[in-house]
Amino acid sequence: MSDWRDDIFAVLQDHDIKQVYHVPDAGHSRLIEACQKSNAIRTLALTTEEEGVPLAAGAWLGGQRSVLLMQSSGVGNTINLMGLTKTLRFPFLTLITMRGDYGEFNSWQYPMGQGTPKVLEAMGVLLYSVDSAAEVKATVDAAARSAFHGGQAVAVLLRQKLIGIKTFGKK
């Protein structure tokens, strides 16, 4: 059965993405698995999200397009290196599964989830936000166009209404 992660994978293929960087994340797991199975995409598991920013710069310098997959709780790890996207003027695309959002159960997730849009905007990153599966393909496509044709740093925030509310234990 197809879902919104399959739509993202199709957009990555349409935009000739050759490298995908990620840390383990349940929200991106189906997309990561699809990328790992692809013969056209190289995936690289990171020890921390910030490693993805200079890797994206290197991919671009080497003539390839890339994307960084992460969760909102990892955005704080990338902020210092986000300045590279403006200083070195390379396109950057990241897809962020949001926590600390709609129906969150884990209070630890709220500070970075609420801060993610603000800190990315402060670093000059364009934001696109998605709440429903029907918006995913067009939004990720628009973000990839802004990044790779417009030379921008762009983040797509995949909101909790889209990825689903996580629950652990009894309700």
TrEMBL record:
Coiled coil: none annotated. GO terms for molecular function: carboxy-lyase activity; thiamine pyrophosphate binding. Residues 6-91 form the Thiamine pyrophosphate enzyme N-terminal TPP-binding domain. SUPFAM superfamilies: Thiamin diphosphate-binding fold (THDP-binding). The keyword Lyase applies. Keywords: Decarboxylase, Lyase, Pyruvate. It holds the Pfam family TPP_enzyme_N. PANTHER family: SULFOPYRUVATE DECARBOXYLASE, SULFOPYRUVATE DECARBOXYLASE SUBUNIT ALPHA. This is Sulfopyruvate decarboxylase, alpha subunit. It comes from Enhydrobacter aerosaccus.
